[in-house]
Design brief:
The protein is mainly alpha-helical. Helices cover about 75% and strands about 0% of the residues.
Amino acid sequence: MSSVVDIHWSVLALFFATLLIPLAISRYYQLKIEKELIISVTRMAIQLALVGIYLEYLFKINSLMINLIWLLAMIMIGASAIVSKTKLPKNSVMWPVMAGLLIGLFPLLSLICLVIVKPTPFYNAQYLIPLAGMLLGNCLSGNIVALQNVFTSLEQRRAEYEGAISLGASPRYATLPFIREALQKSLAPSLASMSTTGLVTLPGMMTGQILGGASPLIAIKYQLMIMVAIFVMLSVSIAITLSLCIKNCILPNGRVLVSMSNK
């Protein structure tokens, strides 16, 4: 297999000019996303540059403590991004989201590193950080969709919820239809993605490995592993996040403490 082809920084900077197209579309249709787009792209560039420096110079250190601190920082930033996009009060849902990501990530990451891939050492940053990044990154949108659906349903279907509470149902039982619907909607994109992978799409991890010179068969094995891991983590993290949010945001008498509007 041939080695990866490098991209010159000047060429990459020139390619960024294509962002003028979505900016023009936003201006024409008055989407008002120009500022958010510029901020998001700038943050992405800075964050990826910092990650690049970390991966470039700290692979050799391979400190377990540094890697764990990095993972915890990734979880905190991911949880903050989820809460920010849902427009929910941070003090009410931040720790349930963090707990969902933490419990969903670490057992799977440990299983992959200790049993499946088995790098040396098992906390090798070359494997640990990219795998964690892929798992966390693919769980953000699902958690946002789930949280928005549950709390929107509590507002729009208040009569249904209050009717169940008045008949003696616990908040957990009264919100079960909303949680079930939120889980279905948040998992649907991943199910669709898995069913079309290989025919409609070539996923990022597989494509990156092939471009990097890896054998397509090896890339496929890694892609199968990561797709399964993403779906498992997504399911676990959403289920735990919603369960803890219901417990934290609804009193035993059924009173809902937060809404989509009182951030």
